Amino acid sequence: MLQSEERLRILVEGIDDALFVYDTAGRILDCNESACSWLGHTREELLALRIQDIDAPALAKGFEERLRRQFAHGRYSYEGLHVTKDGRRIPVHINTTVIDYQGDKAILAVVRDITDRKRAEDEKRELESRLRRAQKMEAIGQLVGGVAHDFNNILTAIMGNVELLRGHLSQELMGDDPRLIHLDQIEQASLRAASLTRQMLAFSRRQAVKREILNLNHILTEMEKMLRRLISKDILLELKLASDLALVHADAGQIEQVVMNLVVNARDAMPDGGRLTLETKNAPLGDSYVVRHSEACPGPLVLLTATDTGCGMSTETLERIFEPFFTTKPNHLGTGLGLATVYGIVKQMEGHIKVASELEHGTTFEIYLPAVDAEASRPSPDLPGDPSLIGSETVLVCEDEEAVRELAARFLQGAGYTVLTAETAVQAIKISAAHTTPIHLLVTDLILPDMNGKKLADTLHATNPHLKTLFVSGYTPDVIAYHGVSAAGADLLEKPFNRRGLLQRVRSALQMR
Ligand code: ADP
Ligand code: MG
């Protein structure tokens, strides 16, 4: 049988918590092995110290008061910060009890290391601040998206009226008449505005993906001026574009965003200047073989490479760069969303990304995108009187934006349709009820002042089961899904639309079963 004091000693030495016994002046009278190993002191050293000597200096001021309370309350607990012999700080939780120690009142303190808990709390705080930042970006995105949506309405009206005017004038005027040239210039300017609007929507990520057959070289050339403004003067931007580059099936706004995000990162990696090279070429067959096999999708690839001479990355960083919110940049400079977005876009296109980087030796991003067969994808020319564009049915157009409504009506009338127009859903319902011959198609804005377009369609459908519907929207899939319309269906036309776009969709909506 062990002596009770010895048993106690074994217990005390066996626990991970540090234990201290100290007197009314804080003088350490006893401690266990954990206390010594934590703090890096020998037992003798600790017994020569006072408990306040191992507190972080910032806590020293409140010591007297704390000690008084410990003795007054019997039991007391608080969080503190202890300093080890070599200067490290350990966040601790302390529980004290008043005990009788060799005939005198003393304090027994049980001290627990809470480094892990503190770290988890810090991480949580950091995560919350990133979330707040992401929410801020989201709010800005919504604002920009809203403005861009209104712009789309205005641009639809401008571009459409130019088209109508050209239709009238081209019958009377010669091709080199200056008035036609002015029209061309208005059209060019509106196209530029439409592409800016697309960038705003790309930023707000509310834009529907609009794939077309593209030459990456054209996009890079168009962006060049803007990219030069984006990077500082001591970074040399070089474009190496292959003249025989295959085309890709892609959304121009998304490609612009990919390029922009890579360029911004390269700029950030070269604060003291350097060289940034953007290169396009058809991927060598060997590469495409490997890549395509891993993606289970055969065929040639287009390769876009961004190479910088910047700070490069460690392997640890390299492993995490595509994670959303992963950033090595100080608080306000990085969102950690740039490469996550790039990754999302490239995957959506069934492409592939390779990165090579070495600390202090720069970085290369390689983006492989599936190439398309150019012949198969050439659009057919818009023939006048194209039978796929004309019709004689009755169409009800419901759109609150006057310019857009008028334009759609004129395009449709020009193609032979009978057109009724309404400004609100209520008006459309009235018109439909009063109309004696059948209405074949409802063309409606998805968002009307009094009701959403889907609800209007359902209401009209109840009394006219043969009615077809074509929705028109400047918003994008998530908003549309919210309004209960499938974005994948053939029943959605995006603004800004042109004559051909509208007439084609009207025809296919009428032919839907
Ligand atoms: P952010 O730029 O907001 O930090 P990104 O997702 O664009 O977020 O990039 C994530 C991280 O990847 C960056 O913080 C940086 O550490 C690293 N990184 C990305 N591109 C480069 C590059 N060209 N050179 C060096 N590091 C890079
Ligand atoms: Mg970035």
What is the C-alpha radius of gyration, as a whole number of Å? Answer: 35 Å
Describe the biggest sheet? 7 strands, mixed
Number of domains: 3
* Cα shape: elongated
* Sheet/helix structural class: alpha/beta
The percentage helix is 40-55%
CATH topology of the largest domain: Heat Shock Protein 90
- Percent of residues in beta strands? 15-25%
What is the correct CATH architecture of the largest domain?
A: 2-Layer Sandwich
What is the helix tally? 16
CATH superfamily of the largest domain: Histidine kinase-like ATPase, C-terminal domain
Average pLDDT works out at 84
Catalogue the ligands. adenosine-5'-diphosphate, magnesium ion
| CA(first)-CA(last) distance | 94 Å
Unreliable residue stretches = 291-297, 376-383, 486-490
Number of strands: 17
Q: What is the class of the largest domain in the CATH system?
A: Alpha Beta
